[in-house]
């Protein structure tokens, strides 16, 4: 009687017989140990030449100048217009990630064909094939820096130095903003709703990067105030009840919906024209990426403009891209990053 094999079993057979040298990390004699974001001791090759990373993790790899080591990524990364300008070779990198959280989040057969040394992120099916997977945490500023350091450690000494330089920049930027916002009294801090996703109903509460940048910029994260933890889907009724002073979106669809829908029209942020779409460069600033360091000055410039008259966001973006991507932005490109098209 013929029995059907699971896709995972077939993938394991392919990995074992086609790429025997890479099958099990324990077979290597020149491995080293790194500690991932969950505190796990993970064995990886002494020299990592083939790295798989999706989303913000791919942005971090590229920001460290290691694009040539990226052997697999996701569609959102590979089709980003700004990334294509900075690193055109991304067109040739296989896309093995589907929609985050979807049933086909990672295509195992396609991943195996890329023969990765390390996969960034926690992927139990991949780890079960003997491929090194490094879990990461991206809930606050320290997590972002620790993840950059981890990627630098994986890639080698040159990249460790770049990661260290980025972390120094990150600390300096957050410190500069907090020095002015820390003394703002509560009554002068606007209530901010972060409207994630296409419908604007996904938000971030306590223990999220969204809460970190809202607070550092001198605002009050209205979802966190309601006791929400992590990422959460909320109702339109709740948002109306909270009546935020400012709304931050991360997609053009959400921006258009919020500013044109009857459901949102009586909210203070909409009435007073304080709905702002987060910038997007190589990656979205409002989510868990290295470029997220620029979200803090961008937001504080919007909500406390008098306090930050001397802050020139165009200059900040220009300098960031020159320093960390080695790319000189045109004024048109800076405008496109700061004001994504609707």
Describe this structure in words.
- By secondary structure, the chain is of the alpha/beta class.
- It folds into two domains: 157 residues, 3-Layer(aba) Sandwich (Rossmann fold); 155 residues, 3-Layer(aba) Sandwich (Rossmann fold).
- The protein is built from 16 helices and 13 strands.
- A hairpin with a 5-residue loop joins β1 and β2.
- The chain is globular and about 60 Å long.
- The N terminus is likely disordered.
Summed up, the domain count is 2
What's the CATH topology label of the largest domain? Rossmann fold
Name of the CATH architecture of the largest domain: 3-Layer(aba) Sandwich
Spatial strand arrangement across the major sheet? 5-4-3-6-7
Rounded to the nearest angstrom, the radius of gyration is 21 Å
State the distance separating the first and last CA atoms: 58 Å
* Sheet/helix structural class: alpha/beta
Kindly report the name of the CATH homologous superfamily of the largest domain: Nitrogenase molybdenum iron protein domain
């Amino acid at each position: 009687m013929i029995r059907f094999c699971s896709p995972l079993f077939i993938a394991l057979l392919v990995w074992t017989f086609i790429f025997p040298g890479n099958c099990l990390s324990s077979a290597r004699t020149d491995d080293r140990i790194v500690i991932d974001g969950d505190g796990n001791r993970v064995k990886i090759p002494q020299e990592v030449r083939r790295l798989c990373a999706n989303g913000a993790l791919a942005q971090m790899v590229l920001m460290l100048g290691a694009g040539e080591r990226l052997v697999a990524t996701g569609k959102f990364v590979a089709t980003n217009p700004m990334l294509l300008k900075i690193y055109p070779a991304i067109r040739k990198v296989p896309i093995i990630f589907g929609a985050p959280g979807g049933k086909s989040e990672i295509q195992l057969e396609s991943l195996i064909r890329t023969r990765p040394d390390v996969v960034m992120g926690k992927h139990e099916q991949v780890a079960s094939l003997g491929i090194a997977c490094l879990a990461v945490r991206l809930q606050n500023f320290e997590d972002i820096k620790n993840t950059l350091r981890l990627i630098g450690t994986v890639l080698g000494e040159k990249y460790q130095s770049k990661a260290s330089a980025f972390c120094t920049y990150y600390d300096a930027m957050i410190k500069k903003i907090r020095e002015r916002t820390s003394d703002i009294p509560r009554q002068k801090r606007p209530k901010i709703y972060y409207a994630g996703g296409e419908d604007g109903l996904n938000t971030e509460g306590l223990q999220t990067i969204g809460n970190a940048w809202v607070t550092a910029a001198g605002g009050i994260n209205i979802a966190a105030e309601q006791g929400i933890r992590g990422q959460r889907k909320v109702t339109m009724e709740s948002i109306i009840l909270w009546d935020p002073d400012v709304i931050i979106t991360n997609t053009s669809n959400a921006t258009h919906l919020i500013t044109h829908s009857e459901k949102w029209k009586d909210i203070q942020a909409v009435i007073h024209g304080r709905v702002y779409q987060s910038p997007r460069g190589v990656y979205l600033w409002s989510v868990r990426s290295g470029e997220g360091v620029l979200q803090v000055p961008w937001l504080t410039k919007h909500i406390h403009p008098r306090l930050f008259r001397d802050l020139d966001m165009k200059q900040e973006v220009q300098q960031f891209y020159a320093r960390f991507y080695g790319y000189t932005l045109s004024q048109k490109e800076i405008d496109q990053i700061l004001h994504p098209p609707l």
